Amino acid sequence: MFSNGKVDIEVKNTGGNIDRHFPTELKRVKSTSRFWKRFSHNIPALLGLGIIFLVLAITLAAPSLAPYDPKLQFDEGLTPLGEPIGPGDLFTLGTDSLGRDILSRLLYGGQLSLFIALSVNSITLLVGTAVGMISGYFGGLVDAFLSRVVDTMLAFPGILFALAISTILKPGVGVVILILSLTGWTGITRLVRGQVLSLREREFILAARAVGVKNRSILLRHIVPHLISPLIIVFTLSIPGIILGEAVLSYLGAGVPPDVPSWGNLIQDGSHYYRSAPWILLFPGMAIFLTVLGFTLIGEGFKDASNPYSKYSK
Questions:
Q1: pTM above the 0.70 mark?
Q2: Domain map of the chain by residue range?
Q3: Is the Cβ–Cβ distance between 242 and 184 less than 8 Å?
Q4: Alpha carbon of 243 to those of 38, 154, 261, 274, 283: distances in Å?
Q5: What distance in Å separates the CA atoms of residue 187 and residue 181, rounded to the nearest whole number?
Q6: Distance (Å, rounded) from C-alpha 305 to C-alpha 313?
Q7: How many CA within 13 A on the CB side of residue 60?
Q8: Cα separations in angstroms, 259 against 140, 250, 264
Q9: 111, 232 in Cβ contact below 8 A?
Q10: Is the CB of residue 254 less than 8 Å from the CB of residue 179?
Q11: For 41-68+79-313, which CATH superfamily applies?
């Protein structure tokens, strides 16, 4: 029944099966518990979690693990002919074209690449969620305008957009984050808009409107909790694409400055020596592959855990 602007919920004795009439919070707790139970039974997802923990631990400990300054150029890091030196006792993973230690640059480069990926993902998630919620909930002219903005952004090729910005602004970490953020929020907006369009017609939203709950409270307290699960999946599955995007921008010369260690810069440098010095390209490529694999396995694990009909729900 309705009274004083609130929904009163009557709890009846149903022979121990009380959760059928219990508040939504209890069902949400039980749903979360089932989610993590399914995830803990997913061996590939746990493997991905272990990979990411290992990558994060190694990159965060770069100042302690790196044997040299990543920007330091060694005279003994090049052969008498000026070629990079392969893996050995002095340089564990070899050197690059300027005689810099690959291992040190790989460790510090992981810090920067993961920082860019997490920063871009956080920005796109916040912007895309906010725009999608506003567009889907209010509809009408607001939805039409925001949808046209999203369509315009999607119609413009991302690479051309990135190169256009890089010619105006000086390449750097901030510019990379800006480029990837501007080209990444539209997909999340479309996902959230579709979810909100469905949720706003549900009974609990209609009941909240009927008793006079403000739109802001409906969005934050009733709609956002239902978006958490798909957004977590999107967050984990988007990180690999951002890491590869940073590598592509660095390869095209629109990424971070060449002297700043990042996995993208290492790939760019190694592409010129893939025959004479394949280790320059091999090791950062392996690091990107493992990181992308880890986040992909976690994202797929979250997707399976949110599906009550998956094989891990048994």
A1: yes
A2: 41-68+79-313
A3: yes
A4: 28, 20, 14, 21, 15
A5: 11
A6: 7
A7: 6
A8: 50, 11, 12
A9: no
A10: yes
A11: MetI-like (1.10.3720.10)
Structure tokens at 4: 């004083």
Return all residues near 140 (Cβ < 8 A) that are at least 6 apart. none
| Cβ atoms of 70 and 110 closer than 8 Å | no
Could you list the pLDDT tens digit for every one of the 314 residues in the chain?
444 444 444 444 444 443 444 445 445 555 667 777 777 888 888 999 999 999 999 999 998 999 998 988 888 888 888 888 889 888 889 898 888 999 999 999 888 888 998 899 999 999 999 999 999 888 889 989 999 998 888 887 777 777 788 778 777 888 888 888 888 888 899 999 988 988 888 888 888 888 888 888 888 888 888 888 788 888 887 887 888 788 788 777 777 887 888 888 888 788 778 788 888 888 988 998 898 888 888 888 888 887 666 665 55
CB 246 within 8 A of CB 117: yes
Q: How far is the C-alpha of 143 from the C-alpha of 233, rounded, in Å?
A: 25
Q: Could you write out the three-class secondary structure of 152-174?
A: HHHHCCHHHHHHHHHHHCCCCHH
Q: How many CB atoms lie within 10 A of CB 232?
A: 18
